[in-house]
Amino acid sequence: MSSSIPLSLDAIRSTLATTSLGHALYLHQDLVSTNMEAASLARTGSPHGTVVIAESQSGGYGRHGRAWFSPPGLNIYCSIIIRGAGPYLSLSQWLSWVPLVSALAVTEATQQVAAVSLSLKWPNDLLLHEHKVGGILCESSFATTSDPVVIIGIGLNVNVHPGAFPEALQPIAASLIEAAHQPIDRNRLMAQLLLELEQCLDELRSSGPIRLRQAYMTRCATLGRHVRVLFTNDHPIVGIAEALSTDGALQVRTVPPHPRSQPMPLIDVRAADVIHLTGC
Question: Is there a domain that residue 270 lies in?
Answer without folding.
Answer: yes
